[in-house]
Each structure stands twice: as C-alpha cells, then as structure tokens.
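Q: What does the assembly look like in three dimensions?
Context provided by user:
Components: two
Sequences:
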Amino acid sequence: MAAEVVERTPVARPSAGRHTVALFASELHLVFGRARTWVLLAVLAAVPILIGVAIKLSGSSGDAEGFLGQVAGNGFFLVVASLALSLPFFLPTAVTVISGESLAGEASLGTLRNLITAPAGRSRLLAAKMVALALFCLAATMTIWVSGLIVGIVLFPVGDVVLLSGTTVSLADGLFRALGIALLIATSLLGLAGIGLFVSSLTSTPLAAMAATFCAFIVFGILGAIPQIHVIHPWLLMYGWTSFADLLRDPPYWHEIGRNLLMQGAYLAVFYAAAWARLTSRDVNG
Amino acid sequence: MTTEPTSAHPAKPADPAAVEHGETQPAAKAPAIGAGETQPAAKAPAIGAGETQSAAKAPAIAAGGWSGSGAPIVTAGLTKRFRSGQVAVDAIDLEVPAGSIFGFLGPNGSGKTTTIRMLLGLIAPTSGSVELLGEPMPKAQLSVLPRVGALVEGPAFYPFWTGQANLLRFDAADRTADPRTRKARAGHALERVGLSNAAGKKVRNYSLGMRQRLAIAVALMQPRDLLVLDEPTNGLDPQGTREVRSLIRELANDGTTIFTSTHLLAEVEQLCTHAAVMSRGRLLRQSTMTELRSELRPRLVVRTPDLQQAERTLTGLGVTDVKRTDEFVDGDPGELPIDKLAAALVAADVRIHGFGIERPSLEDAFVALTGEGFDVAE
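A: Here is the predicted structure of the complete assembly.
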C-alpha cells in the first residue's frame, strides 16, 4: 500500500494527520503576544492600585458604602471592589477592543485570506477566535483578582471575611469566593464578546468594529436606564451582571447567578451563530 | 456559498457523497477508509462504478481523481457578478494542464485576481464551477487546499511578528501540517526564497520585495501539487524577479503545476509553457506558448509614396490581409517568395523607400486580442 501511494502521488506527506489544536494555540499567541493586549491588562491591573491608594490616602473608610467601605478594614475587599468597579466600564472596553479586532483585524491585514487558503476552515477559525476571546475575558478578570489581592495585602490589614449575609468565613474561603466572582464576571462578558465577534465579522475595519460594539454596549446601558420600558429590562445584556455579589452570601443565592449565565449563553449563541453565518458565506476580498 | 465541511459531521460511510466530499482527507476515499495517513492519490478505486451520485456527476473524480495526469484546474462557466452588478468574471472555462507553468495574463482589472479568489474558495462564484486537483471547490477545500500553495493579491502578514513567526502561524492553520517539523520547514522555505537572514526581523521592517518573497515562502512550507501565484514578481527588483522565476522553474521541474497571473508579457514569454488571456472578465484565449508563437505570422511592410498602387499590386500577387496606412502598406505574404514580390512592385512602378519583413511581438498579438495595451514597463 505504502509503496503504491508513493508511486502515484507527486507530493509525499507521510505525516498528514490532524493537528487541530495548533490553530487554537496560534490564536492565543496572536492575542496574548501583542503589546496592545498587555497594555489593556496593565490598565486593568492598575484599577486596584488606584482604588487602594485613594482609600489609603484618604485615611478612613469615609462614608463609602458596600465593598469600597470595607476595604480599609479588610484588604480582601479590594479584590471584590476592584472587580465590581471594573465591570461597568473597563472590562467591557477591553473586551470590545479585543473582540472588535478579532476578525476585522485579520481582514484589514489581509491575513484572513492566508488563513482561509491554508486552509484553516472558516468554522474552525471562528471557534479559535471565540476561545481566545473567552480566555482573554478570564485573563482580564484574573488580572484584577491578582492585582487586587497583592495591593490589598500590601496596603491594608487582611483577615477573616464578613459576608453580606453577616456570616464570617476564613480568608481562604473568601478568596475562593472572589475567584468564583472573577470567573462569573468573565462569563458575564461572553455575551458582549459574542456581539463583538459578530460585528467584527461584518467589516474589514477593526476600529469600526470596536466602535460599533461599544455603541451596542452603550445602547444596552441606556435602555436599562429607562424605567418606562422596565418590561424588557430582564432581557438586556447587563441585567444580571451584578448577580456575582450573591456569591458573598451564605449560602450563595444561585438563582440570579444561574439566570445571568443562561442570558449570557443565549446572547453568545445568537451572535456566534450570526458570526458563523456571516463568516462562512463571506466573500473574502480584503 | 462556502459549504465548509465541518468537523462536527464526520463523513458517514452510509452516504457516499459525504465520503466523497466530506472533510475527511482525500486519503479517506481510498480503499482504506480509516487509514488516515494514506495519500490522496490512493483514493481512486474505492469509488465504485456508478454506485454514487457524486461519481456520476463528476466523471473526473470517478476516473480516479487527480493523480498527476488530469488537469489540476478546471473551471466551467465560472462567473462572478458583484453586488454592484459589475460582471468581474464572465463565464470562463479554464483548463490548466498538469505540469504546466500556466501564465494567466491580462491588463490590471481584467478579472484575474477575482478568478483566483474563486479558484481558492475565498469568494463564491455567482455561477459556474471550479475543480481543483479533481475535486469541487469550495466544497472540498479542506482536503484540497493543503496540496495547493497560494499567493493572492500581494503579501499579507502580521507586521508586528517576525517573518518566521508569520510562517509558523499560517502553517499552524493547516491541520495536515506536522507541528514537529514546522520550524525546520519554515527554515527551509525561508532559505529557498533567500530570507534566512531576515527570519528574525519583524515584517514591519521588510521591504515590499522581502514581503513578496515571504509570501512565496508560505506557499513553499509544504510540498504542493499546485501553486497558484497572483503576480509573484510584483514589487521585486530585477534580481529578485530573476530569482523568483528560476525558483518557479525549479518547482515546475519537481512536478508542481504552476498557475501564475501577471500583467507582464515578458514574464509569460520567459517563463510559461501555457498562457491564457483575460480581458474585461472574459477569457479570450488559452493555448500553449508554442501555438501562440506560431500564430505570430511575419508581415511584409512596404514603405512607399505610391500607396494605392502598392496595395493593388500586392493584392494582385496573392498577398493576404493587405492594409494601407498613410506611410506604408503591409500584408501577410504567406509562402510567396519575397524577392519576387519586390521585383513585381518595382515592375509596377511603385517607388520603394523601405521594404522588409517584420515579426510581430507577442505584445502585438495580445494587444490585437484584447484591444488594449499592456503595461510593459519591464
């Protein structure tokens, strides 16, 4: 058999097999090998420093409510407060930049045609882009988690954690819950990442994709702020974003958390499918 | 549309069409379905006589697929109409013979790149079909394209990465490429295009010529059955152009079929065994270079003030296709003896200021075909 093959085929490629993961690894290299990504992560890492230093300099907890008010007493809360304060703006911005770049960036460089003729397979390429995006979301929240913990320990006393429900748990338990919060927030960003991926599949201009994705995010925010249309509020992208705080109860309230995860899953499914439909039928002219 | 066979649906043995065109490697068509490492050419005998629809539809495949003897590129009625209504490619029937260096010639904007994009599955044809290495595109792209090296419309790279990193990225996108040999193959490809010294340099700092070479290196990362090169010498200096041409000859000698588009006649004349001419989306002509050259018949040119008399005389002597301008008369003398023609003109009192045979250049032939000039800057 082998001899016959060699005889009949001008191209001998004995190792031809499946190396499916290589593209995924390469995609991670592309996202995390860029200076831009590290600048974004550095900005996120600076959030706890900013908050920590501000509270330290003010010398007291002041009248601040919620997590911020507890930071001076227990550095642990800097982790949670930083995550909570990054969620409305910094994290969505970072996700918008990376997701807007994903396909539109390849199209604008022209590398999309190299990938398709490689052939990467359009579906697999999209999957690789999404996986890299999801890992970026996780990297973003974990950056804040790590930075918050370090700054919290350096600037403030750290000890047992009093939960929202009044129960006291060990610092380790608290940090584990904060890890869960980082994970939940990363998951909360997936809906937006899906929107960004879809918008990115529509254009060859990364900046336009980023702007459009951010606009979509703002529109969701505005809709959420209009009380007259409260009936649609539960279906908006960010409705369940604050549900992460329910992890700091004993026992945690899972209902809102679960609902938010379902919502993010639904948004992701819809926009991923749209991106797939677009990419697999797109004429690659760039 | 891009009906990319997805990995979610492995070819079902019950469905012959899926086995035929599914995302399984070409090898899986072979008698040894499941022996994934067999080579593409081994696919033939399994497709039983008439037992599958697809075999009936695609005789080329039923006859054994591409095994080095069929035409690596066949298009039928290939058409692309853009949304604007403009017909970029108009019902072209291309057939690129195996082992040829096929020059795809045409002025800028004649539809060459659009055709190449359709060949490679980058854009969907409005109508018509493409067969690459015996398999339908874009349906079979995942099994066909690993055997095709491509350079489409100029080099495109990640400027913030080194040349080598770019090669590794595009190679990683091809799942048939062995990761263990990736670096070695990249090194070899860079060496072949003369970029070894710039391998670690960021592409941002490459000149256009270096990018062009790097793009060719991408196509050389694997042994290929077919290379589709869109303007491969674009942006290269004369030395680089010569190197690329000799590289193309070398690859052709190894048995790779080369399909190269160009707007440079000199390139076709020096390099190609076959040529096709595109103009305004239509395929005007395709044939071997030998045939094209043989059609360039020498013409007799007579410079004289007695134009009408000369025209009459030549026509009377049997010269065909006689044309008269303000300064000369020319025509196709065929097999008529030239000296007799001169004597006859003199005898007819035609004052001869100039008399001679002119061989038309390939350019004249193409200009005659396309009705427009070529960029012959080189």
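Follow-up: Chain A touches chain B through 48 residues (CB under 8 Å).
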